[in-house]
Amino acid sequence: MVAKGSPARAVRLTVVAIAAAAALAGCDINNTLGGFGWPGGGVTKQSTAMYDMWFWSVVAALAVGVFVWGLIFWCTTRYRKRGDELPEQTRFNLPIEVLYTVLPVLVIAVLFYYTAVAQTNVNKVSANPDVTVEVVAFKWNWQFNYRSGPQLTPQSDAKTVASTTGSSEYIPILVIPTNRTIRFEETSKDVIHSFWVPEMLFKRDVFPASKNGVARNVFEITAQQEGRYVGRCAELCGTYHSMMNFEVITVSPDKYDKYVAALAAGKSSPEALELIGFTGAPGTVTSPFAYTTKPFDTKRQQS
Fold it and tell me: Name one GO biological process term (predicted).
């Protein structure tokens, strides 16, 4: 027989355990309880905001679940049949009805509010970003144009300062600085592509130009750590879609400025990377060429 009050104690203990787990979230943003299934490795300020939203939503869902399960177990224990006499029958209970009407509305309202805040922060576009990169997709590669500023209107006087273009023999490398606001302006030369770096936990479709001008999908990120990451096209775009890769290198702001200046002076991307310290052998993390992915075989010689 279950002792009186034990279901309530179980509910309290479970809630305390969830609260303790939530408090540990600040210790390791990507590893607390496995992130409740959220993919680890987010390297931008925006990915951290999305993780926080996911984590606390799951905590809220578990809290509601534990509360409901606790009531179910308490009712089945407290009011189980103990003889032939029926317990007191109640047609309605106003406090309970108010409770299960008001609480769900409050939970939904709070979740809606924090979802709107997180979505607004992730989609926020500033008037004067620190860095502007034009992403041009085409079958089946990428071109990255480092711009003097954002193209707020078709008549904007922003211009391309330096550029890197991929080919069947060369994986394009996009170099961006850490702790700076980076604005991406995307456009396609042919069909719809999708700009995706898994570690950013975020992707946006790249649309072709429209009749009225260039259709640009714009978003901003702030990289929080240095590293090298593979980028991919995440929209089925044709024969070599699966091999339409690129690489992102996040470096310090000083190295980034030096890299772009070298490109603007006529250096190739590998030569500019060598100037900022990427002088390692091919296939190493310090190589001036992509090492997380490789050029695809077009099999053109066979045809």
Answer: ATP synthesis coupled electron transport
Same domain (yes/no): 148, 117: no
Structure tokens, 273: 């990377």
Alpha-carbon span 216 to 213, nearest angstrom: 9
Q: Partners of 134 in the beta sheet?
A: 145, 185
CATH number at residue 201: 2.60.40.420
Distance CA 229, CA 174 (A): 10
Contact 269, 172 (CB under 8 A): yes
Order of strands across the sheet with 182-188?
160-165, 141-147, 131-138, 182-188, 217-221
* Tally of structural domains, the chain: 2
Q: Any bridge partners for residue 223, and if so which?
A: 44
Same domain? For 224 and 139 the reply is yes
Do 62 and 157 sit in the same domain of this protein?
no
Q: Do 54 and 143 fall into the same domain?
A: no
Six-digit token string for 39? 């993919």
Query: Is the pTM higher than 0.85?
Result: no
Residues 6+ apart with CB under 8 A from 303: none
pLDDT, tens digit, 9 for 90 and up, residues 160-212: 899 999 988 889 999 999 999 999 999 999 899 999 998 888 888 999 876 66
